[in-house]
Specification:
The complex is a heterodimer of chains A (about 290) and B (about 350).
Chain A lengths: L1 E5 L2 H10 L3 E6 L2 E5 L3 E5 L4 H15 L6 E10 L10 E8 L5 E2 L11 E6 L4 H8 L9 E4 L2 H8 L8 E9 L9 H10 L1 H23 L6 H10 L4 H17 L3 H10 L8 H15 L2
Parallel strand pairs in A: 1-4, 1-5, 5-10, 6-8, 8-9
Antiparallel strand pairs in A: 2-3, 3-4, 5-9, 6-7, 6-10
Chain B lengths: L1 H7 L6 E5 L6 H9 L4 E5 L3 H4 L6 H6 L3 E4 L6 E3 L12 E4 L2 E2 L4 E2 L4 H4 L5 E4 L2 H14 L2 E4 L10 H4 L1 H11 L3 E7 L4 H6 L6 E6 L3 H4 L2 E2 L4 H13 L3 E9 L5 H23 L2 E6 L1 E3 H10 L3 H4 L3 E3 L2 E3 L2 H15 L8 E3 H4 L1
Parallel strand pairs in B: 1-2, 1-3, 3-8, 5-9, 9-10, 10-11, 11-13, 13-14, 14-18
Antiparallel strand pairs in B: 4-5, 6-8, 7-12, 15-17, 16-17
Classes of the chains: A alpha/beta (about 290), B alpha/beta (about 350).
The complex binds iron/sulfur cluster (SF4).
Iron/sulfur cluster binds next to strand 7 of chain B.
Chain lengths: ~290, ~350
C-alpha cells in the first residue's frame, strides 16, 4: 500500500480524477480516498496537522515492510535554480524549528530532479531571512510547512527507504497570494504524466520490498507444533528444531521426507524427552551431513 | 526479481554524502571529481545517514551510496579473540571504511552495522598519527583491511599505498592487507616487502556463490601468481571455511585448482596459510539471520562462549581436511589455525 499524504484538496483533485479512487469515511478532519494499492489522505496545512495525520494513518493501518509513505504537494521555491511547476524529490528535509535533518533513503531511482527541502512553521515571507543563507548552494532549495513533521511521525513506522517526499514549487513566497486553488490544481495536473510514472515505480518498489521480506521463510506453524509435540521438545529443543527447519528450507533440503521416514520407522512420536533429544540430534546430523 | 531490482534501484555511488567540514578538503574533492555524475549531499555527521533506524541493508548493498566522513575517537584497536593473529603479540586492526563494496552473505558486517551504505573515513593523517604513537611503545602488526575490502577501492583513496609507505618509515611496523580482489594493478604499483603482507582469501566456487560481487577463484589466483612473481609477501587464507553441501569435494577441487594455477614451486614461496572455519559473535548472527535466509547463515551453529560456530567435531574435520590438503605443499609451521591460537 502507498500511503499518500497531501495538504490541500486542490492539490489532490487532479490525482483523484486520474486514478480510480473511492472515498472512505474520514478520520476526524482527515478526508481519505483509496484505490487497490494507494490511500490518499488530506492533512491540511502546517506541521502539527501533517504530523497528526501521518500518525493517525500509521496507527490505524499498521504499515508493513512493503508499504510506502509519500508526501506530495506544492511548495515555495527558495532560489532561481528551482523551476516552478516541476516535480522534485526531496533528498533532505530540514526542520527549521529543531535543525534536525531527515534523509530519506534514495535507493529507489525515481528519475526526478532532487532538491533540498526546508520545512518551517511560518509562511515563507517571515522566514526569508533565515533561509536565504542557503544562497549559492548548487542545488534547488524548496520550502514547505508540512514535510518535516510528517516525516518525523512516519519515521516511527517506516524505514527511510519507505519514505518519499515529492514537491512542486508553485511560488517564491512573495507571490504566494497570487496562487489560487485553480492554479495549484492546474500545476499538479500538468505533472500528471510524470506522477503516473512515479506511481508506477513506487508500486513496483513496494512489490520488490514485499518479495524481499517474503524471503524469510515461514513454515506451517501447525506442522511445527505437531512435530515438536511428537519430539517432546523442551523450550530449547523447540528453538533448535525451528532453526534446523529454517536451515533445511534455505538449503533446499526435503526435511519433511526425513521426518516422515522417522514416523514410518516408528521413531516418531518418541516416548520420552531423552529419545526426543537423540532423534533431534540424528535429524541435525542428517541435515548437515 | 533481479531485473526488477536492477530497473528500480539507483546505481551504486549515484549519491555521495559528504560531511560539511570535509567539503573543501583536497582529498574529498579528488574523490568527488571521480564521480562527476554523482549527486552530492552535504550532511552534518555520517551517523545522520548511517545510523537511521529501520534501514534496508540488503537493498542498500545493491544500491550503495558513498559517505565521506571524519572518524573521531580511537582509530586503531587490538584484535578480537576471533581474529587470526599469526603469532603476533601486538596485533591490531583499523577501520578506514565501514562496510564493503562486496556483499558476502555470511559477512558479519551485515549484522554489525545499521546501514548497507559505504562510509570512507578521510582523515588518514589522524590514523597515521595514532599508529606512530603506538609504534613508539612496541612493534605493531596492523590489519588495515580486516573488515572491509580496501584493495577494491584503492584507486579512490590510495590507503594501501599510504600504509605501505609507513612500513618504509617504521621498521617495527608490519601491515596485512586482506583481500578477495584480483588486485594485479595494485601489486604492480608497489615494491615487494616482507612487512606488507597481501592476504588473499580463497574459497571454492561453491562458496564464492555466496560472496556476491567478488572475483572468481581463477581471477584471485592470477593475482596471487603475479604477486608472488613480483616478490610480494603473500598469505593464503582459507578463512572462513564454509560448510556447503559436498564441502570436502569442493575444497579438494579448489586445492587442485590452486596447485594447477600456482604450481608447487610458487606454493613454496607463499609466506603462510591461514585456516579457520566460520565463526561469528552471537549478536551479529542474530542480526544477520534476520537480513537473509541464506543457508550459510541459517546453519544450526553452536554457541561457544558467545561465538557461534560449527559443532566442534564438524569444525575440526573441516579445518583438518584443509590442513591435510595443504600439507604436501607447506610445512606445518607455515599453517596457522584459528582454533590453535585460543
Ligand atoms: S569481502 Fe570481507 S568485508 Fe567484504 S563483504 Fe566479504 S567478508 Fe565482508
Amino acid at each position: 500500500m502507498i500511503f499518500l499524504q497531501m495538504a490541500l484538496y486542490c492539490e489532490a483533485r487532479p490525482i483523484l480524477q486520474h486514478e480510480a479512487f473511492h472515498a472512505m469515511p474520514p478520520v476526524g478532519r482527515f478526508q481519505r480516498w483509496q484505490t487497490e494499492d494507494m490511500m490518499l489522505t488530506l492533512s491540511g496545512t502546517g506541521q502539527a496537522e501533517a504530523a497528526t495525520c501521518a500518525a493517525v494513518t500509521c496507527a490505524m493501518h499498521h504499515p508493513t515492510a512493503s508499504d510506502l509513505f509519500v508526501v506530495l504537494g506544492t511548495c515555495a521555491a527558495l532560489e532561481g535554480k528551482a523551476e516552478k511547476g516541476r516535480l522534485y524529490r526531496a533528498r533532505s528535509i530540514e526542520d527549521l524549528g529543531s535543525g534536525r535533518v531527515f534523509y530519506p533513503d534514495l535507493v529507489l531511482d525515481l528519475g526526478l530532479p532532487e532538491a533540498g527541502l526546508l520545512s518551517g512553521y511560518q509562511e515563507l515571507k517571515s522566514q526569508k531571512e533565515r533561509v536565504w543563507y542557503r544562497d549559492g548552494r548548487d542545488l534547488p532549495a524548496l520550502y514547505d510547512m508540512e514535510s518535516a513533521a510528517a516525516c518525523a511521525a512516519a519515521g516511527h513506522f517506516f524505514g527511510p527507504h519507505q519514505i518519499v517526499v515529492l514537491r512542486i514549487p508553485s511560488d517564491s513566497g512573495d507571490d504566494a497570494g497570487l496562487v489560487t486553488p485553480e492554479r495549484i490544481s492546474d500545476m499538479i495536473g500538468q505533472q500528471m504524466d510524470t506522477l503516473d510514472s512515479v506511481f508506477q515505480r513506487l508500486k513496483a518498489f513496494s512489490e520488490l520490498l514485499g518479495q524481499e521480506s517474503a524471503q524469510v521463510m515461514e513454515e506451517d506453524p501447525a506442522f511445527l507444533e505437531q512435530t515438536e509435540a511428537a519430539l517432546r521438545c523442551s523450550a530449547s529443543m523447540s528453538l533448535r528444531f525451528r532453526q534446523l527447519v529454517r536451515y533445511a528450507c534455505s538449503a533446499g533440503i526435503a526435511y519433511r521426507e526425513i521426518l516422515e521416514r522417522y514416523v514410518q520407522e516408528g521413531l516418531l512420536p518418541v516416548t520420552g524427552r531423552k529419545e526426543g533429544k537423540d532423534l533431534l540430534a540424528q535429524f541435525e546430523k542428517e541435515l548437515t551431513r | 526479481m533481479l531485473s526488477l531490482k536492477k530497473n528500480l534501484l539507483a546505481e551504486p555511488f549515484s549519491h555521495i554524502y559528504v560531511e560539511r567540514e570535509l567539503v573543501g578538503d583536497r582529498r574529498t574533492q579528488e574523490i568527488l571529481h571521480r564521480f562527476a555524475h554523482a549527486r552530492v549531499i552535504e550532511i552534518g555527521h555520517y551517523k545522520d545517514v548511517f545510523c537511521r533506524p529501520r534501514q534496508h541493508t540488503a537493498l542498500q548493498h545493491a544500491s550503495q551510496a558513498l559517505i565521506l566522513a571524519r572518524k573521531t575517537g580511537s582509530l586503531i584497536y587490538p584484535g578480537s579473540p576471533v581474529c587470526q593473529n599469526f603469532g603476533n603479540h601486538h596485533f591490531y586492526y583499523t577501520s578506514l571504511c565501514m562496510n564493503c563494496v562486496f556483499d558476502c552473505q555470511y559477512c558479519y558486517l551485515r549484522g554489525m552495522y545499521p546501514s548497507g551504505h559505504l562510509v570512507l573515513f578521510m582523515n588518514l593523517e589522524d590514523y597515521i598519527a595514532e599508529l606512530e604513537t603506538l609504534l613508539l611503545e612496541h612493534p605493531v602488526y596492523l590489519c588495515i583491511s580486516y573488515d572491509t575490502e580496501l584493495c577494491a577501492l584503492e584507486n579512490l583513496h590510495g590507503y594501501v599505498h599510504a600504509f605501505a609507505r609507513e612500513t618504509e618509515r617504521h621498521e617495527n611496523l608490519t601491515i596485512e592487507v586482506r583481500t578477495k580482489t584480483s588486485c594485479t594493478q595494485l601489486l604492480r604499483s608497489l615494491p615487494g616487502s616482507s612487512r606488507v603482507i597481501f592476504a588473499f582469501t580463497l574459497s571454492p566456487e561453491e562458496v564464492i556463490r555466496y560472496e556476491k560481487k567478488t572475483p572468481s577463484l581463477q581471477a584471485r589466483l592470477e593475482a596471487v601468481r603475479e604477486g608472488l612473481d613480483l616478490g610480494h609477501t603473500i598469505r593464503l587464507c582459507f578463512d572462513p571455511m564454509i560448510h556447503v553441501p559436498e564441502w570436502r569435494k569442493a575444497y579438494s577441487r579448489m586445492m587442485e585448482t590452486i596447485v594447477k594455477e600456482l604450481g608447487e614451486e610458487r606454493l613454496r614461496h607463499v609466506f603462510d596459510f591461514s585456516i579457520g572455519s566460520f565463526r561469528i559473535s552471537q549478536d551479529y548472527l542474530r542480526a544477520l539471520r534476520k537480513s537473509t535466509d541464506s543457508a550459510v547463515v541459517q546453519y544450526p551453529f553452536v554457541n561457544v562462549d558467545g561465538f557461534y560456530q560449527y559443532p566442534p567435531e564438524t569444525a575440526e574435520e573441516m579445518e583438518n581436511t584443509m590442513t591435510g590438503l595443504l600439507l604436501p605443499y607447506a610445512g606445518r609451521d607455515r599453517i596457522f589455525r584459528w582454533r590453535e591460537q585460543i
